[in-house]
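Lecture notes, structural biology module. Today: joint structure prediction for complexes of two components.
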Amino acid sequence: MEDIIKLKHVTKIYKMGAEEICAVNDVSLRIHREEVCCLLGKSGSGKSTLLNLIAGLEKPTAGQIIFHKKHMERMTEDQLANFRQKYVGFVFQSYNLLPTLTALENVTLPLIFRQVPLKERQERAMEMLEAVGLADRANHLPREMSGGQQQRVSIARAFINTPEVVFADEPTGNLDTKTTYEMMDLITGLAKKNAQTLVIVTHDLELSEYADRIVVLHDGKIDHVEEKKATTESNTVQ
Amino acid sequence: MSTRDLIDMALRNLRKRKLRTALTILGVIIGTTSIVVMISIGIGMNKSFENQIQEWGNLQVIEVYNYNNSGTNTELKLDLPTIESFKTMEHVEVVTPVLNEYMLLTYDKKYVADVNFVGVWPEAMSALGYNVVEGRGLESGDTDVIVVGGTIPQQFYNPKLSWEMRYSTDPPEVDLSSGRVGITYDYNYGTRNADKKIKETKVKVVGMMSESGQSGYSVVVPMETLEKIREEKNKYQNPDGANDNKKKQKVYDNVMVKVDDMEHVMDVQNQIKDMGFTAYSLTDQLESMKETTKMLRIVLGAIGAISMIVAAISITNTMVMAIYERTKEIGIMKVIGASLKDIRRLFLTEAAFIGFAGGVLGSILSLATSKIVNIVAAGQGSTMQSYIPLWLYLSAILFATAVGIAAGFLPAQRAMKLSALTAIKTE
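The predicted structure, tokenised, for the full assembly:
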């Protein structure tokens, strides 16, 4: 399968005063197009840092990250912003919605930065809200919604641009078990439907059930990789 | 991000913190008002000079004399070719030689008045700032007609009376428009000593000028008529030299040049001076009056500027506070695709809007303040006045907006440089 992202000997070192902490240590990894890839690891295993590096939110101390044949470690701030706008969607543990915007407005935000006209923007956002089952909450503010509803809005926002890759950082960390499964079904369903690549970071072994491939991280290094091609279909349907 | 979305989002952000936005705008209002009012008082000062000087005559007229600072110059002649050359200068509207003669104006062969007769080319009169209030001014082709100043009718007296009597009796009733009016150089006219050889020149009064200023005390006569009378007078007073005079080309002592606009008066005047003539204009005097108060106006402006600086600092403060409050928001926007430029433009737009709103409201407050200043000053009998031209309002709004943008620049730069990851992790 074609690789959409390649990591070559990527290392990230944080300096805490005089001490150096190696969060990601010489990781080489390929993420295939249209797969659901799970970065699994305990707290402190470097999984979140790895996600931030792949998504271009942080720059590696050493190594190369190649996306679409472009070296992300060499991009400027502006190029990275442009890259995120075009190719990437994010789902966060803490939803990260703008508290003063309604659900609909939060979903339209990525389109605003892409200068999509108002009418088209609202139509697409409305479709997206319908897809996540929140059409009736379009004009509610985040604080008027439950955690699960807020995460649905944030998922709608991540997918509205039909990005090639969606990154989800502990997307269900703040949700109860029932909602967690709903949310995972939603994310993987949307990704499969649009042939998008999904990278999920989690510490929850159960969530990794949804993945085509599980990359287990330990102390900043890849411990092992599990391929689960055969079970993909049954997982996404459930 | 499109401009519309940018403005929309900026306004939304400002509305979110109404009180703080309002207080910051209030600072700009006060800054704008103080600058505008201070400048308006400076402008009012110049304006009252202009009004004052305009009473003395026309600001667009330059008077030219045929001598320079080193005394009479024989090389320079205010003759017809010179006048033609003045006419061809840029911005020159009208040129006329001027002749001044003190003679007597007579009424009904009984009364006389001592008057300064001003001879001009009749077609030039309307341009020279004489304020005709009744009848008409001189027109092209006029001869033997005059336009009299508003105070002239009161200046007639009976020459037969002794000096004491002339002052103690009321001036005679005269109706210049219908009565018999003439000009004479016989100073004994109407008395026993009158010289029969001197014939008065009969003229018709076609108009009357206002009483104030230069118009009030003069009688304007077509050049041709006044020259003819002067020639007779010269012949009478100096019968031998008469022939000499005739052969000479006409040379004038004084020429008036009317310029199309006050702005160009100094230009034209300097050109004439460069030719070696002496030239005066009221604009000259106005400029020197303005120069003496320049310092005062600068100080007034500086006082206003100080409050604007304070307002600018308060805008910067507000925007810096906004960054701290909105760190997470900025992070989210960056992560979901806002470019660095979008973030900077958003902050600059918010700061610019604070400046703009302050500028607009400040202009309105200035209008009210200016009115109050004028009322209070008038009540105190002071000549101080505040005058706000339209350009001052417009530049005040532009300036306030520019101050807003300048004050917002540093915060915008900081917001732009925030690390998206750090920002998004902020709680």
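Point to remember: The longest strand of chain B covers residues 92-107.
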